[in-house]
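Marked as duplicate of an earlier ticket. Keeping the data here for the record.
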Amino acid sequence: MANAYGFVSPPLTSLRQRNLHFSGFCRSGYCQFQKLPRRLFLCRAVESEEKLASGVTPSQSPVPRLVTNGCKLVGSGSAVPNLLISNDDLAKFVETSDEWISARTGIRNRRVLSGEDGLMSLAVEAAKRALQMAQVDANDVDLILLCTSTPEDLFGSAPQIQRALGCKQTPLAYDITAACSGFVLGLVSAACHIRGGGFQNVLVIGADALSRYVDWTDRGTCILFGDAAGAVLVQACDGSEDGLFGFDLHSDGDGQKHLNAVITDNEMDHVVGSNGSVVGFPPRRSSYSCIQMNGAEVFRFAVRCVPQSIESALANAGLTGANIDWLLLHQANQRIIDAVAARLEIPAERVISNLANYGNTSAASIPLALDEAVRNGKVQSGHKIAIAGFGAGLTWGSTIVRWG
């Protein structure tokens, strides 16, 4: 297992250039792209066998190692709660119907956490299934990225997944908070850790329980969301087998007003008072509000920005839509999925969608849909997939990957 101590770029003139471009970040979300080298970094990552042979510790090692790893997706897994809530179930306590919901969103059912299960147990189950498919032992995992906006611990839940998996090497584990774009950011982060840091096996998990932050009396939002977890194992490989070809990432805080769940003060705390000592102290206890969403604005944002992002990622990879076997978008709304596919001229039979069965599961939606498509034989080894996430922040991004 490699231990990473940081990396710096070597002289560019001596290295073979690759065609991955890194997207710039700007307020509007779009700017010019600058060509940068891919995968080649001077990295002070020293294999344990090398350290033993040389008799030096990492801090004493005088020679940095050239890392030229590629990365590939080799295993997937998913898990959903037992409790199924249909559109007809929702119609019993909000003014709606199965016809109304399915016509506007494409959703018919969703899974919701109950007392029988928890989000971290779903994440652990998804991770175990991904490791099993990849035939990798938990002790060989050297990084766990948990993409979630609903952790079960304010300080992050990824280390608890590491503990539950029984990883004896205590690999690094941390959370990534980017709502429905989180899994895409996790994939790109995994690639960066592998290419620049010498990591070998990275678990990327998307898991969210937005049902905990839904106003179940608001038919505009309660019809949309469900809970789930999905995971993939990203593994280092020879550069010639590299399976992540290009990406494009953006954020725009101006759009936060259209989709958020902000901190609110506990109104009951005023009865405690400050005893006349310091005004405004102690602070009121806070909690998060229910999800607030302007559906029309989010729809316009998605159908405008997502196709542009995918086109940029394809250009960065030196590919076109004709080279893609599958389009896999964050499962938010079937009308968004259809509109993006039409814009990219990708036929419906090449679009992956399981939205009808699960609703919007935030960071879990992409790996959940991917895992189902792999296990039912739709996605096969060697297939190229254009993946895009978009949502609160506002954040959005795309990556072009090859399965297997």
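See parent ticket for discussion. Residues 171 and 207 are 19 Å apart (CA to CA).
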